Amino acid sequence: MNIKQKLNNFIFLSALCTLAVFYGSCKAKKPVTTPTQEPTKEVVELPKKVEPVKPIDTDGDGVPDDRDDCPEIKGSEDNGGCPKEIDKPFDSKNIQFEFNSSVLKTSSYATLEKIAFQIKKYGSTKFILSGNSSAEGTENRNMMLSIDRANAVKSYLVNNGIASDKLITEGLGESKPIANNATEEGRILNRRVEIAIQK
């Protein structure tokens, strides 16, 4: 092989190497990607909704106990949470007193407790407590005695949960007997307190 051929071969090989290097460096390269970090989401906790405290309504009539005059008996709002009707009319026959005394007979207690229960059903309605006496003694003494008897009944009812301002007392003395003052049986019935709704 002469020098010219060697030279041509060298040039050819050099060209091939150059091409190989050139194509190798011109290869499409994958783009270098840096991993992207997801933006962190800040979790904001909303304040929990506080449920309003429901007022207590023991009898379930829609009138809360703090505004219900009869919290254990269903009634209506326009009557202070109490029923408009009463179970029975007031029976005050058994509200009795000893002769010349404003001290209640113990037999009167059960009657007064029933009446206190009934009065509670009337909400803010006012009641008249009318004291009476038999005809023994002077008119003035009997008037004072009848007032004292009405006040004794009022005290008993207040002690049984009736508001004092719902009870109005009056004394009628011996002016309205319901029985004959000529007999002891009649006089006992006349020593009484009657209870009625104020009109």
Question: How would you describe the overall organization of this protein?
Answer:
With 199 residues, this protein is mostly helical. It folds into two domains: 31 residues, no CATH class; 110 residues, 2-Layer Sandwich (60s Ribosomal Protein L30, Chain: A). It contains four helices and three strands; from the N terminus they run ααβαβαβ. The mean pLDDT is 81.
Offer a quick outline of the entry.
With 199 residues, the chain is mainly alpha-helical.
Number of distinct beta strands: 3
What is the helical fraction, as a range of percent?
25-40%
Quickly name the level 1 CATH class of the largest domain: Alpha Beta
**Total domain modules:** 2
Record the strand order, biggest sheet: 2-1-3
Oligomerization state = single chain
Low-pLDDT runs: none
Largest sheet: 3 strands, mixed
The CATH architecture of the largest domain: 2-Layer Sandwich
Strand percentage = 5-15%
Q: Would you list the SSEs in sequence order as H and E?
A: HHEHEHE
What would you call the structural class?
mainly alpha
How far do the termini sit from each other? 149 Å
Mean pLDDT: 81
- Which homologous superfamily in CATH is the superfamily of the largest domain? OmpA-like domain
Number of helices: 4
CATH T-level topology of the largest domain: 60s Ribosomal Protein L30, Chain: A
Based on CA atoms alone, the radius of gyration comes out at 51 Å
* Shape, per Cα inertia axes: rod-shaped
